[in-house]
Design brief:
Blueprint: H1 4-24, H2 39-42, E1 50-55, H3 58-66, E2 74-80, E3 83-92, H4 96-102, E4 111-114, E5 129-133, H5 143-153, E6 161-168, E7 171-180, H6 184-191, E8 197-199, H7 235-244, H8 254-266, E9 281-286, E10 289-294, H9 412-415, H10 432-438, H11 441-458, H12 461-481, H13 489-494, H14 502-518, H15 527-531, H16 620-647
Parallel strand pairs: 1-6
Antiparallel strand pairs: 1-2, 2-3, 3-4, 4-5, 5-7, 6-7, 8-9, 9-10
Helix pairs in contact: 1-16, 8-11, 11-14, 12-14
Length: about 650
């Protein structure tokens, strides 16, 4: 008979080996056979900067840059962390932001990579489409990243995202934010099915007001999937319910939408359904129930301007330019991320007007005007690089679009943005989905509980500071070396810590939320304050300008006089607000000035080197296997114990 000591020792060794296997094997970087959605860790690795190397015929690349507004697809090969995918489609992307860059001295365009355009069986670890966002109008480079992080923390289905350093034909293009496209792959990964209806509203119907029971009347509803079965959609039934007092729980995921609007409100993200533009969100209908999917957060943290969509903060009643100093018309799209622009809109159709010199964004700034001149030695972006070229390189100037945090992050209108009437440039009644939720006492109480959770747990100074510090350590060397960046390193670091930083915004915004919840702070709202849409008025001192234009929901920029000339907001960066010592020195680079250096050991593009590495973690299949194996070992131990007792 086997001695108990031998039996127990053997079982203990087996259990120890099991523990070592579970703890160590997932971290060895061994690629598993195939998990359908392994791109979440193999492509979007948040602990490093992913390398993206694009190889494209040089003439095609130059044509893409010269005709960026066409968004024409080009064929290319792409290598991501050493994994090469051939025969992919790539194009510039965006709409209003794209036009702004087209009409600037920069060619730093956002890009969209379509892995399965030419071969529908092709993907990158399951990923079919990748957006490379240029961080337009965000000097911190962190607003969109942080927003998605908070959405994830609040349990919302959120596109995968991480930072990526891009090269084209061996030439560095700079630091981008990679974001997963919301498409069939995203739906299957997050909802278990992509058989439903995915909508990206933007235009007529995107406010979700009830028009009729004919879905064709909602021309801006933007159906992206399952178009052939649109008659089976419950969209009009849902709209009828939220507008006319039906059972909304039958048609929408109430709890998810309350969490979404709580995060959106806390982050003062007004380039959204809650603002005048009523866009930048997805709806997914699965079995007749609608979920909401967050999208496009480079204007969060008050970047779109409370009180109407203008850049910056200040008085909500003041007329200010929007995030891009552009004049979007109702129905225009900031970006059509999922549909390549194979055909250009005709004159007279939405988005069909051509920007002429002298019209908004139509001309180049002149020397001596704001942003018009070349940077001088000693000025931001004016330093000489190693080859004697300007650090700004393709930008040719200090390309400050007025989106820098240095002037507007701590605006009172953003810090104290109302949580009871969380809309801007519109009224709560004109946003029936949000109105239907907040007019119900039970739903409002839950919405407020989510705001409290955000204000005490996630949108706190300490939590946001920990993220910005880590991102600064990860990104500073890449940001310094970025040859096409829109902003200076000082402006980037200003958002990391200090009196005008993202953590300071979190501190003051969360305090305001808690005061509003307790009744200590009452934010006055009015139809006038909420109904004004900001737009440039030709005076950089907008608060002092009494000649304010009003911009209604159906504003058409083509009605502006041809000689209308929007002002450019000047850069008013104060280097004294930069964190002491600068984060850049810790990364082996200079925070300000001097030659650009490639960061050693940071995963910079290295031709022919590097395998895709998986982020530390254990997937569901590993957990299930480990649980089953552990249960088997315990059962075996009990069996041997009982067998020994009977054998005595």
């Amino acid at each position: 008979m086997i001695k108990n000591r031998i039996v127990y020792t053997s079982m203990a060794i087996l259990l120890l080996l099991f523990g070592v296997m579970v703890a160590v094997l997932p971290n060895l970087g061994i690629e598993t056979k195939n998990t359908e959605y392994s791109y979440e860790t193999l492509v979007f690795n948040k602990s490093k900067v992913t390398t993206v190397d694009i190889e494209i015929p040089q003439e095609d690349w130059e044509d893409m840059l010269e005709n960026a507004a066409d968004e024409e697809l080009k064929q290319a090969n792409i290598t991501i962390n050493g994994k090469t995918i051939e025969n992919v489609a790539i194009r510039t992307k965006g709409n209003l932001s794209l036009r702004s860059v087209v009409n600037s001295d920069s060619d730093r365009y956002s890009l969209k990579v379509d892995f399965d355009y030419y071969d529908d069986t092709q993907s990158l670890y399951g990923l079919k489409k990748l957006n490379l966002n240029n961080n337009y109008s965000d000097s911190t480079l962190m607003r969109e990243y942080l927003s998605y992080e908070l959405m994830e923390k609040m349990g919302l289905p959120t596109p995968a995202h991480s930072y990526m350093y891009v090269t084209v034909n061996g030439e560095e293009r700079g630091l981008y934010l990679g974001v997963e496209a919301v498409d069939e792959t995203f739906l299957a990964n997050n909802y278990g099915t992509n058989d439903g209806f995915l909508f990206k509203p933007d235009g007529t119907g995107s406010d979700l007001k009830y028009i009729s029971d004919n879905i064709a009347d909602y021309t801006g509803i933007g159906l992206k999937t399952n178009e052939d079965n649109i008659e089976d959609s419950k969209l009009t039934d849902m709209l009828d319910a939220i507008n006319n007092g039906g059972d909304i729980e039958q048609y929408i995921d109430v709890d998810e939408m309350l969490r979404y609007f709580a995060v959106n409100t806390a982050l003062v993200n007004l380039d959204s359904y809650q603002g005048n533009m009523k866009h930048n969100y997805y709806l997914y209908e699965n079995n007749g129930v609608f979920s909401i999917i967050p999208w496009d957060y480079n204007m969060s943290f008050g970047g779109f301007g409370a009180g109407g969509g203008g850049m910056g903060g200040g008085n909500p009643n003041q007329m200010r330019g929007n995030a891009n100093n552009e004049l979007p018309a109702d129905g225009q799209t900031e970006e059509n991320a999922d549909t390549p622009a194979m055909k250009q809109p005709q004159e007279g159709q939405p988005n069909g007007e051509q920007l002429q010199e002298g019209q908004p964004n139509g001309g180049q700034p002149q020397e001596g005007q704001s942003n018009g001149g070349q940077p001088q030695e000693g000025q931001p972006n004016g330093e000489q690089s190693q080859d004697g070229q300007q650090n700004a390189n393709r930008n040719k100037g200090n390309f400050d679009m007025g989106g820098g945090m240095s002037s507007n992050l701590m605006a009172d209108s953003a810090i104290n943005f109302s949580i009871t009437t969380p809309v801007s440039g519109t009224t709560l009644e004109d946003r029936p989905l949000l109105n239907a939720l907040l007019s119900n006492e039970t739903y409002r109480a839950k919405y407020e509980s989510y705001l409290e959770q955000l204000a005490t747990t996630y949108l706190t100074e300490d939590y946001i500071q920990s993220i910005t510090n880590n991102l600064a350590m990860l990104l500073t060397s890449y940001e310094e070396a970025d040859p096409t960046k829109f902003y200076t390193t000082e402006q980037f670091l200003e958002g990391v810590s200090g009196d005008n930083s993202l953590p300071e915004f979190a501190k003051q915004r969360s305090a305001s939320i808690l005061k509003q919840l307790s009744g200590e702070l009452v934010v006055e709202t009015s139809a006038t304050a909420q109904g004004n849409m900001g737009m440039p008025n030709g005076d950089t001192n907008n608060e002092a300008n009494g000649n304010q234009m009003q911009m209604p929901d159906d504003f058409d920029p083509s009605q502006l006089p041809e000689d209308f000339d929007p002002s450019q907001l000047p850069a008013d960066f104060d280097p004294s607000q930069m964190p002491e010592g600068g984060m850049g020195n810790e990364q082996g680079g200079k925070a300000n000035g001097g030659p650009m250096q490639r960061p050693d050991g940071m995963g910079f593009p290295n031709q022919g080197n590097g395998q895709a590495t998986q982020e530390t973690g254990i997937d569901k299949s590993t957990v299930l296997t480990a649980t089953a194996t552990f249960s088997f070992l315990v059962a075996a131990l009990l069996f041997v114990f009982r067998f020994n007792r009977r054998g005595r």
